[in-house]
Amino acid sequence: MSAALLGGGAASAQVPAPVAREAAVSTISTERLERLRAQLQRYVDEGKLAGAVVRIQQDGKLVFSQAVGWRDKEARDPMREDSIFRIASQTKALTSVAVMMLMEEGKLLLDDPVGKHLPEWKNTTVAVARPDGGYDTVPAKRPITIRDLLTHTAGISYGSGPAEKAWKDAGLAGWYFADRSAPMATFVARMASLPMAAQPGEKFLYGYNTDVLGVVVEKVSGKSLQAFFDERLIQPLGMKDTSFYLPREKADRLAVVYEGEQGTLKRAADASGWKSGGHFGQGHYLKGPRVAYSGGAGLLSTAADYSRFLEMLRRGGELDGRRYLSRKTVALMVSNHLGAIDYNPGMGFGLGLSIREDLGTAGQPGSEGEFGWGGAYHSQYWVDPEEGLTVSYMAQLLPAGDLDDHGKLRALIYQAID
């Protein structure tokens, strides 16, 4: 098993406010971070986790990089720090940044109706459940906006709600698109014709919102989402192992997906035997049609690559002398946009990212102003501007069962801060 524990302190140079702290006020104890390595190894030894990679930076300096367990347990192929993972909803952050780039170029506004850019979305409907079963279809009270999509308040689910059967019949149940032989624009147009699960702006409802945004990016920029990401984010950031589909020469680096239920691990089915929704498959990122660029869940990446992206956000939109977003745009992204809309206690939601607003109410170690999210395959990330931290945790476990690694990851990182 590969492992590297690197010593490093906080840099004293000033970094852009308001996203990153103005000066280093703490360091991380590499000795105390050994507890994190030991805990992750314990999960592997107990058969609860096949393998994982965690990477921690403070003030841009790498302080911890660890691979534990197995990329492919049955083949006894160890996890490596450059193993490639399906990052699922971590794709959403890149798509959200792409939208903000287009805003900065004057090509769209957050309050634009989606129908201004995708005409089929001009007049949407909502399914309202009847007390005795079934539902009525009513017009949306107002147009869905770009901001609604970024904040998951558009009323768009992942096919759940009163009209669930209609969404399933339309082939829109589940977030996986790597096996599809049509571009995302086809599916997003189909979504527009179906009844949504809630009225725009009335509730937080996680769903296909960012897939719609990905098609908006394609329509406004005139490029595929892969091309836009490559030109504006992936290549300039040096994210050399991030893509929608896996280059064939990297097939031996893709981590295997496992299912964790009742404290046991089982290798997920291959592509030919996928479960409903295609969440568990191993194969289509390599062998699929390679045409559906899902802005909500489609990317592959590594812990190191994603840390580059996170560091750019921590620094207020700049990295290595290149500016990707204005620091004011990043500040807008990491501000709570939900207002009175109900969400998780102590947390808010910005433009594509969750925000930790009240430390005590949220009830976990961290910092107010911290932002992040995760992916369905059990990956997680966050940026803590107060402590200068970026954390990238990669695993391939779906479902995860009762595994408590996310909570312990957070506890064992923050206990190491001096």
Sequence of secondary-structure elements = EHEEEEHEEHHHHHEEHEHEEHEEHEEEH
- Strand portion: 15-25%
Class derived from helix and strand content: alpha+beta
Largest sheet, in brief, is: 9 strands, antiparallel
Give the integer mean of the pLDDT values: 91
Helices, by number, come to 12
Helical percentage:
25-40%
Cα-based radius of gyration, to the nearest Å: 21 Å
Rough outline: globular
Oligomer state equals single chain
Q: Poorly predicted ranges (pLDDT <50, ≥5 residues)?
A: 1-24, 271-280
Distance between the termini: 29 Å
Task: Give a description of the structure.
This protein is α+β, with helices and mostly antiparallel strands and 418 residues long. It is built from twelve helices and 17 strands. A hairpin with a 5-residue loop joins β6 and β7. α1 packs antiparallel against α12 and α2 (91-104) crosses α6 (209-221). Residues 1-24 and 271-280 have low confidence and may be disordered.
